[in-house]
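**Backbone description:**
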Amino acid sequence: MAIDYIYLDSVDSTNNWVKKHTGELTSFTCVTAREQTSGRGRFERHWVSPRDQNIYATLYFTLASYLPNIGQLMAFSCVKMLRRHGFSALVKWPNDILIDTKKAGGVLTETLSHQNQIDVIVGIGLNVNMEEEALQTIDQAATSMAASAGKPWNLSQILHELMDQFLADLSLLQDKGFKPFRREFENCLAYKGQTISCLDGTRKIEGICQGMTDDGKLILLLPNHETIELSSGEVTTTSYPAKQIKGTPKDSH
């Protein structure tokens, strides 16, 4: 399946643009911009979007019924692409992208339901050629492909590689679900085996990151040795090591 590309000069956010124009989009469409004036990530956080330095893109397509894991899949597709270029890339569950343990990208997924279809809007921001001065303005440790590798990258080439990888992965997700991705995804999972905190709604849960379920939920081992599965949340590391929870079972998958 081919992807139609729409190239914008400047926009508030590519996700917003797609939502305003869904009635005009009739196929798989990738909308990308040279800059975003009001880019945003998860939880409505501001996404720093300097001109001509990074990928700011939103993929639009339709489904007959809701398909979970799409945001996770985009992050995973991006990490696979980055690893092919030699980067030490990981997915911070559920859909942030890390290079050298620093944030390099993120995914924001939205859906719009209609009577006979679901519009899927998958936005991705990836720091490609972002310079150190701009990276320092971000409110957490951040990096870019250029900052990590010490050389600039072709934005168009990286964008097309990413979209081609996602399209191939999406076809498998539609056919087989998330299960075929689980083992490889776990190999790219940040903080596996470490003690983490996860803000799940209003609850803050601490435990050891054990891995993932066949449907993409995060498995945490709690201090009382019970395990729980989380379907959403924001993950952060904690200050104490996983070994403080004694008797940690080995990975059972």
About this structure: The chain has six helices and twelve strands. The longest helix spans residues 155-176. The radius of gyration is 18 Å.
